[in-house]
Each structure stands twice: as structure tokens, then as C-alpha cells.
Amino acid sequence: MGIAPLKTLSKLAAGALLLAVMPLGAARAEPPRVSQFVLQNGLQVVVVPDHRAPAVTELLCFKVGGVDDPPGVSGLAYFFEHMMFRGTRSLPEDGYAQTIARNGGVDGASATHDYTFFYDRVARDRLRLVMHLEADRMANLDLSDSAVATERDVMLADRRARIGNSPEALTREQAEAALYLSHPYGRPVSGWSDEIRHIGRVEAENFYRRHYAPNNAILVVVGDVTADDVRSAAEAEYGPLSPRELVARADYAQPPRLGATQIAIDSKAAKVPLLLRLYRVQSYAEAAPGRAEALDVLAKLLGGGKASVLYRKLVIERGLATSVDVRYDGYTRDAGEFSIAARPRPGVSLETLARAVDEALAQYARRPPAKAELALAKSQLVAGVAFRRDRPLDLASAYGRALAIGLTVFDVQQWPARIQAVTGEDVRNAAAASFVEKEAVTAYLTPVAR
Q1: Is residue 437 within 8 Å of 55, Cβ to Cβ?
Q2: What is the spatial distance between Cα 50 and Cα 57, in angstroms, rounded to a whole number?
Q3: How far, CA to CA in Å, does 299 sit from each of 213, 239, 331?
Q4: Catalytic positions, written as ranges
Q5: What is the Cα Rg of the chain in Å?
Q6: How far apart are CA 6 and CA 238, in angstroms?
Q7: Which one of 138, 226, 291, 422 has the fewest CB atoms closer than 10 angstroms to its CB?
Q8: How many CA atoms lie within 13 A of 115 on its CB side?
């Protein structure tokens, strides 16, 4: 799912402002009524009632991510995604996770280039408990030398396992570094190994104090609650936390690309070849109304399952590929990314597969998609919004990430209607503007004999 920005964004005044946002979209499933308010310390709160089950999901989204890592110390935001579970002075080591588990809940976290979020799902009468735990680790995290060193070593081991041992993950890292040039989106969120080793107590404390504060966070609560329930609990647990002086986020330039880039990687660890094509495109935060939605529709048209265009053309009709995956990542403060990954059938070269992909993309840049294809893609995207209501974490994440990159609750509510409004000509224009050769990076991953 994507969301389009309103170019004039309303700003929430610090204080006890309560705003009920009514959905005006054209989605068949009426979105829930959403309430917002801001605590005196700057914590922004969003409440999405859902009374179908006596449970609640709390998501705490901090407006800090990989772009905020200091030069030479990449991976700090990702480090804190894990470090926040390391313990506090009052609840040391894995006491947080154990407490959630003892109360029948689940927890987790995720970090991106632009934001980091932590979530808990518990019974509704445990909401105050999880708020108390989150407030504790927002203010009292254990950042001793031993705790930092232990987590740094865990992080290095995790990177080796997930990325270092995955030729495809390494290929994507190399391609993204080439795509974004000097912009920090070209650094992996998980950090470069040699820079992760620079993380010590001082670096951790500085990062924590600058970014993990109530006035840099968005709290989203989805479940069997009311706005008054959440306000009372949030004021009791988060309200006593003092705001901090935040470091202004850097406004990075996005250097122009002067030509296409090709990367050839030979790997003894790779089992099958891979073609990876990346384009730097506009995101929801920077695109004109309708452009980002058209990119979401385009991604669904090209690679949204076995009925999609690229799967049909490359896998079924021409027998050139065994799989195709197309993604549009538009939830970013700066440029977004449009990616195509395909694996060739035995005997088909990566160059042949790349030419076939180019031919298919060129068709969409020249003429609009067929009406039936367009209708199917839009209905699939809008249906996903309805299904998301049954997945509270997905629903909470949609609001959290939107607000974290400067969008609004209204944008989230209106997204289905904006998708439905996308025309075939919108898709053609998006393809013509986005599939530009100089904005592309093509990576070829080839297995070689050991």
C-alpha cells in the first residue's frame, strides 16, 4: 500500500488537542474513525478503535533511522532496534521480553532508513503495562560498556548470517550504494561491518539522547480501546517523560545521476543467477498528487503475482525466467525506489533477460495499460486495505510510517480513493518519467564454480 501526501500539511499544536478524522475515501470497507492528540511533552498519539476482539496493539514509532547514523558509524539506528530489548536499570537484560511473554503478549521491532518502530500486542487490560515498559526504556536504557559491546557483537553476527551469507542480499546492497551515490539511502540500514565495530558506549549514548525522546515519537494504538482510554494511560505513563532538545535532521542533497550503472558480481556462494534492476523514483513525500499512487499501481501491474504482466511475458509466454518480483518503496522522506528482480531459466543469459524486461517496461512508457489489467491491479491494492483491518500491526504501521515521513492520517484514510482515481494515462506518465536509463542500476549476480 502507498499513501499520497497533502502538499499543505496541518501541524498538530503541542497540547491536549483532540482531532477526530472522518474517512472520506471510496473504499468499500469504511475505514475506522481515528483520533489524534499530542501530550504536553510532544508525544503524538493516534488511536484506531477496533472492538472485534479484547486485544490492543501499541506501536511506538521514532522518527529516526539509518539516514540519521553519524558519518563513519552506520548501523546505529538498527543497533537500537535491538538495544532497546537489552534492558533498563529497573528491568535488566531480557526482562522486557519476559514480562510481555508472561502477560500473553508478543513484541517486535523494525528499522528503516527514515524511522524505527517497536510494537506490542496484548490483552486490552495490559495496555498500561506495555506503556510503562516502553516509557522506561525510552528514558532509562542500559547503555553500559558491557551491554553495548554485547549487542554490537550480536549485531555483527546477525549481519553475517542474514547478509554476509546471502549473495542476493549483498548484491542488493551494492546496487543501492550505486543507485543513491552519496545520499545515505545508499548505506545499508544494518550498517557496514567495519563501521558497526566503531559503535561504543559514547556513540550509543549520544545517539540515544538525541533521538529517543517523546517529542520525536508517534504512538499508534489499535484495538479494543477508546481515545479517552488511551489518553488517560498515555498521560500517566508517557506524560512524566521530559522532552529533549532534538538535533535537526539533515536535508541531504540527491546528486543527479549522469548515466546508467551496471554491476557484475560473480559468487561462489550463489546457487542461481539473479537480475536486479533498481530505479530511483519519486516517493510519496515528494511526488505530486497521483504520481506515487500510479507507481504503486504500476508495480502491481508488472509484478503483482502470477497474473502480472512480467510474470506472464517472461515466465509463461517466453520461458525466459523462473520468477519475477516487482516492488515500489515509496515510504521515504527523500527518493523512493522501484525494483525488479528476476531469475533466468537455465540456459538464458542475464543480458537476454534484461533486454526482455526493458521491452516490457518500454511498452508501459509508450501506452497506457489495458483497462482490465488496470482495474485488476487497483482492486488488488484496495482489497489489501480491507484485509489489513484484520491485521492490527499492519494497520498501526500504516499510520506510523505515514506520519513519520511527514504525511497525515487523512492521507492514510484517502489512499484507497486515490488509488481508484489512477488512470491508464497516469500509469503511462509514471512509467515514462521513472524508467529513465540514467536513473537505473542493473546488477548481474552469476554463480561460479567453487
Answers
A1: no
A2: 10
A3: 36, 42, 14
A4: 81
A5: 23
A6: 30
A7: 226
A8: 25
Q: Comparing C-alpha atoms, which of 357, 361, 323, 359 is closest to residue 342?
A: 323
Q: Nearest to residue 69, comparing CAs of 102, 38, 113? A: 113
Domains and CATH numbers, the chain: 19-237 (3.30.830.10), 261-447 (3.30.830.10)
User: What's the predicted TM-score (pTM) here?
Assistant: 0.90
What tens digit of pLDDT does each residue of 322-371 get?
A: 999 999 999 999 999 999 999 999 999 999 999 999 999 999 999 999 99
C-alpha cell, 12: 498538530
Q: Which amino acid is at 70?
A: P
The residue assigned the cell 530489548 is 85
pLDDT at residue 241 is higher than 60:
yes
Residue 233: CA atoms inside 13 Å, Cβ hemisphere, count?
25
> What's the rounded Cα separation, in Å, for the pair 209 and 445?
41
pLDDT tens for residues 185-201? Answer: 999 999 999 999 999 99
C-alpha cell at 448: 561460479
Q: Residue type for 217, please? A: A
Nearest-10 Cα torsion for 156, 160, 161, 167: 150
- Scanning the structure block, which residue is given the C-alpha cell 536486479? 276
Rounded to whole angstroms, how far apart are CA atoms 236 and 130?
12
Decide if 100 contacts 133 (C-beta within 8 A).
yes
* Alpha-carbon span 292 to 295, nearest angstrom: 5
- Contact at 8 Å (CB) between 141 and 86? yes
